[in-house]
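$ ./design --mode recover --in tokens.txt
reading tokens...
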């Protein structure tokens, strides 16, 4: 059963069953149960119905024009015996006689009043919509972008390609043509399943061929609902994959242009996966499809020593993504050329790192390179209180602040879900200890006592973290870190060593502390935060969990720096090396075999 389908705005663009399916329309053998005849002139205006309607042609020939998702009329020609079209309620349609003298149509729908005529556009607007404007504008857009991208070096030497979706039609450049000279009638049109709807005419010297990229394009259209996909053969896309030889992705952070990639901010690490090239482009389709589904956040895939596929929800977004990524690849390549490391955060102003490192290679990005440490660690985990930050800050600033402002904070934020969750968590904690807290005052009193005793229970720490968050954000408090911390962090990160924090304060409190420090925002140096959700700091299992979370081959690739002997012992038992920190204001350390440092310059 085949029903001829054609687009009115461009008669050489046919329709397809998959387009009907996308619109929710069924084609079936038409045996109607409650059929009745309706005069055609009642249905010849654009309308929709409250119900799905099945249409069958009993005599002559009728045209069923269906408005597609690109606001174009898709015309189905129905003759007796051709079967029936079942059109869902919200799809706009009109039915016209295909032959003179045909004046009625057979319909089936659940109730006689189900059809509501609905004039969607004025006759003028409808004419304008259908006078080949979408058809031409999309075709012309593809050609215009081809010229721009040729000038940018993305589609030279007939390489690269562009495809833009308009409604249910996807316009694609053919294979092996000079992209900058292509004309609007030389494009292929395919549906979402890759069926060809329109083939460009043959030329005396050239038979147009659908691009080998088409299956790859379709993955982005189908899996990501892309509006446009660009394939670039730019020099920088190719070279950047060699910069990441042996790696399955390219990553960069701390660049303004990262913001141009949807869903990313300046501090985010942008990761673009890389797949291996194949002899023929169509052989890439499977690995590209897998790669797209494995990296749901990514808007692009690099192909080693070949180029890049990049997409967006609209052609404008795809173009912006393409421009930002090419810029970032250029930056990475040039930074590498200058001996700079494009993967690490900038060194804070005023931090003189070249003077306080012994034999440290400033811009080495070799993982595990020695930053002056006696062993090439991959991770250094720092405690906060008494290690990066004076105990006095926590004891004399943070804790008293939380106690002093507890009641006020609970009052002001009582209506928020977060505070309600925090209070519920505290009540559960009290209940687990056999304490019942009937009123608001009882809750406050319980928390005050717990804060005073510096209890480390997660529920209490969460609430405390939220009080501090408000204080940091309002500028009421600012954290103190020791003067040698930024330089040490920078030195380690630039030597390829990752920095993590393990502290009893909640992870969000830790992040805030390093964000609002008196030495500037240090978050860029820190890869991971661990709090007591992973376990008590004196419990050996906590350190085993941390080693697993950091993904090291062996725990001895981790160094832990703390001021508490019991914590160092627990870490040691888990196979992690420890160093004790002796800072002004810390309690006297009991004697032990651990190395003791008084400044991070000794690391
Ligand atoms: Zn290619």
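writing sequence...
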């Amino acid at each position: 059963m085949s029903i001829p389908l054609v687009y009115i705005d461009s008669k050489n663009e046919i329709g397809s069953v998959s387009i009907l399916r996308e619109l929710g329309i069924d084609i079936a053998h038409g045996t109607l149960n409650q059929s009745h005849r309706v005069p055609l002139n009642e249905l010849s205006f654009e309308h929709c119905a409250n119900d799905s309607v099945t249409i069958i042609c009993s005599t002559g020939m009728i045209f069923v024009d269906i408005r597609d998702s690109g606001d174009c009329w898709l015309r189905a020609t129905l003759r007796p015996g051709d079967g029936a079209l079942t059109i869902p309620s919200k799809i706009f349609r009109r039915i016209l006689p295909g032959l003179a003298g045909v004046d009625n149509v057979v319909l089936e729908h659940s109730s006689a009043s189900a059809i509501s005529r609905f004039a969607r556009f004025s006759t003028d607007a409808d004419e304008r919509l259908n006078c080949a404007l979408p058809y031409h504008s999309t075709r012309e857009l593809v050609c215009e972008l081809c010229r721009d991208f040729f000038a940018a070096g993305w589609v030279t030497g007939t390489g690269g390609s562009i495809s833009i979706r308009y409604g249910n039609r996807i316009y694609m450049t053919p294979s092996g043509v000079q992209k900058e000279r292509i004309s609007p009638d030389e494009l292929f049109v395919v549906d979402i399943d890759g069926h060809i709807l329109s083939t460009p005419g043959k030329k005396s010297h050239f038979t147009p061929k659908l691009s080998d990229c088409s299956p790859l394009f379709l993955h982005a259209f189908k899996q990501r609902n892309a509006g446009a996909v660009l394939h670039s053969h730019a020099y920088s896309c190719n070279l950047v994959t060699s910069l990441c030889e042996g790696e399955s992705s390219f990553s960069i952070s701390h660049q303004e242009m990262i913001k141009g990639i949807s869903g990313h901010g300046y501090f985010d690490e942008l990761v673009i996966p890389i797949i291996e090239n194949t002899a023929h482009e169509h052989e890439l389709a499977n690995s590209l499809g897998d790669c797209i589904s494995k990296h749901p956040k990514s808007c692009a895939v690099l192909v080693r020593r070949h180029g890049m596929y990049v997409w967006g929800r609209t052609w404008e977004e795809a173009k912006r993504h393409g421009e930002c990524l090419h810029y970032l690849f250029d930056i990475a390549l040039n930074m590498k050329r200058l001996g700079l490391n494009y993967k690490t955060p900038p060194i804070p102003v005023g931090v003189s790192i070249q003077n306080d490192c012994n034999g440290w290679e400033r811009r080495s990005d070799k993982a595990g390179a020695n930053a002056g440490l006696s062993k090439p660690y991959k991770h250094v985990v720092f405690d906060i209180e008494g290690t990066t930050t004076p105990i006095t800050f926590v004891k004399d600033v943070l804790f008293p602040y939380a106690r002093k402002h507890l009641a006020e904070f609970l009052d002001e934020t009582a209506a928020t879900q977060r505070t309600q969750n925090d209070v519920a968590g505290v009540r559960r904690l009290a209940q687990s200890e056999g304490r019942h807290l009937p009123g608001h005052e009882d809750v406050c009193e319980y928390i005050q006592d717990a804060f005073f005793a510096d209890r480390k229970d997660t529920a209490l720490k969460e609430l405390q973290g939220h009080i501090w968050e408000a204080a940091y954000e309002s500028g009421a408090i600012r954290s103190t870190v020791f003067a040698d911390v930024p330089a040490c962090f920078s030195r380690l990160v630039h030597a390829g060593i990752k920095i993590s924090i393990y502290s009893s304060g909640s992870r969000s409190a830790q992040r805030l502390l390093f964000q609002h420090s008196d030495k500037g925002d240090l978050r860029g140096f820190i890869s991971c935060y661990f709090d007591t959700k992973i376990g008590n700091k004196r419990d050996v299992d906590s350190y085993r969990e941390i080693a697993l979370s950091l993904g090291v081959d062996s725990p001895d690739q981790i160094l832990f720096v703390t001021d508490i002997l019991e914590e160092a012992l627990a870490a040691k038992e888990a196979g992690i090396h420890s160093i004790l920190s002796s800072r002004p204001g810390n309690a006297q350390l009991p004697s032990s075999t651990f190395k003791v440092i008084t400044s991070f310059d000794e690391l």
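exit 0
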